[in-house]
């Protein structure tokens, strides 16, 4: 039709990427691949991409990739990629994406629950067998330090907003973060924790951040402050934390992750009344399955179109 802006030429759509789901098929993942426009294939069909679902089997992934030189992209199931990095898998020869940001909301929810549980003395009350004394601290209008500036931090800032918490974010780039009063570089960590009632760890574990919270940081915190860790246990020097709790340097610690993990029976942290521990349940499989499916679907569609992936890993940074 004359004057029409609609082209009569056929519009080509991107070819369906060939995707292997491993180490074994899972219905939610195959459905997500197909919903993203991909085609689930077996190893002998020369897959272009792998969706890997077992966070503990890095050896299996390494073996698979050695056999499949056609793979140009790997989707990992976890947010922190230190296991893949330690296995020597993350390299620029392929594109890598992970689940960073995908599980931010449930993890931030758990961080807030741990903080409130600590401030309201729930570890003590959970162990109590008598009425005891009244006590507890309100989070309203209190300073909070969030170490890490990714999706979990952003989700947590949204949850803290109704509490009118005055948030400081510690991150590598000191760019403004919505909801935070100030943003400081990691070399200002001691300043950041000095006045915080709650210090939340939600950053990636890298060689630079391993053992970040040591005796010097714990001694810089307020004597009534609570440390909340929903990142990785390796961020904290466990022996220093035990001493800090035993000697009252800080108010308490609420940990969803520990070093070592699982925390062995009889470990001193189990016995401390100011320590609240959950067994890495900030994001259970039931919670993350639909969120991972959403990430897989979106990234398959982006891979087909040649677009940047969500949660793409920077091999030079290690996350």
Automatic annotation (TrEMBL):
Keywords: NAD, Oxidoreductase
InterPro entries, alphabetized: D-isomer_DH_CS, D-isomer_DH_NAD-bd, NAD(P)-bd_dom_sf
Record's protein name: D-isomer specific 2-hydroxyacid dehydrogenase family protein
TM region positions: none
Domain D-isomer specific 2-hydroxyacid dehydrogenase NAD-binding positions: 118-282
Pfam families in the record: 2-Hacid_dh_C
